[in-house]
Amino acid sequence: MTSTGKSLVVGVDIGGTFTDLFVLDEANGTARIVKVPSTRGEEARGFMNGVARVADSAAAIATIVHGTTVGTNALLERKVARTGIITTRGFRDVLEMRRRDRPETWGLRGSFTPVVPRDLRREVDERVLADGTLHTAVDLEQVRAEARSLLEAGCEAVCVFFINTYANPENERLAVAAVRALWPNPHVTSASEVLPEIRDSSAARPPRSTPRCSPWWAATSSGSNRTCAGRALPANCWWCRAMAA
Questions:
Q1: Would you say 66 and 222 are in contact if contact means Cβ atoms under 8 Å apart?
Q2: Whole-prediction pTM value?
Q3: What residue ranges do the domains of the chain occupy?
Q4: Burial of 32 by CB count in 10 Å (0-12 exposed, 13-18 middle, 19+ buried)?
Q5: What is the pLDDT of residues 39-95, one digit of tens each?
Q6: Residue 195 in contact with residue 166, Cβ under 8 Å?
Q7: What's the chain's Rg over C-alpha atoms?
Q8: Which string of DSSP letters, residue by residue, matches 102-138?
Q9: Which class would CATH give 8-70+218-239?
Q10: In sequence order, what are the beta bridge partners of 10?
């Protein structure tokens, strides 16, 4: 409980059908769950309807923690930004090859369509070895040329994903800086910034999903932030980071 008398910590997760809230009262140690209908396209409405049911006034709320199921839904429904990838030469098919450890991963059947099509996955010269040794410095002119080409192809977002950046991200850091210098919006992500993980297929998934959702999520979160400000809700409003697989 804060010194101002605010005792409620509210966790909210907006889904396609329902908005769920978990409310912890730090003053007496009690917790409860509230479920209200979601409003597609106006996600902040369900959020505020839920808040109205958990607190008599905004003055009682100390902190709000916001989940990201609605962002995952947008990715599954492919209602996301057109995105490109800039990667190490020879590795643009990692997303489709995956681990190749079984013909039907987890026993699932059906077709597989990569979230970033092959023509929007571009390759440049660079190479870092598995131990972090810099084998080939990144060609920044190639990076800039591919970034401009992706913009001409209608991409709204881009991910820079080089192999072995968990061991040495320097090439990727330089490439991302070059892309951000010419990209017209902030929707540029780096694999080493989002998830510096061993195994290329695993490391590629969250960073390539992040920019696809970023424009959509920016609009959703800004709507909720405006609503919070308009209703005098606490400044302590935290957004969970989604690790889309």
A1: no
A2: 0.69
A3: 8-70+218-239, 76-217
A4: exposed
A5: 777 777 777 788 778 776 666 788 888 777 777 777 777 777 888 999 999 988 887
A6: no
A7: 21
A8: SSSGGG--S----SS-GGGEEEES-EE-TTS-EEE--
A9: alpha beta
A10: 23, 64
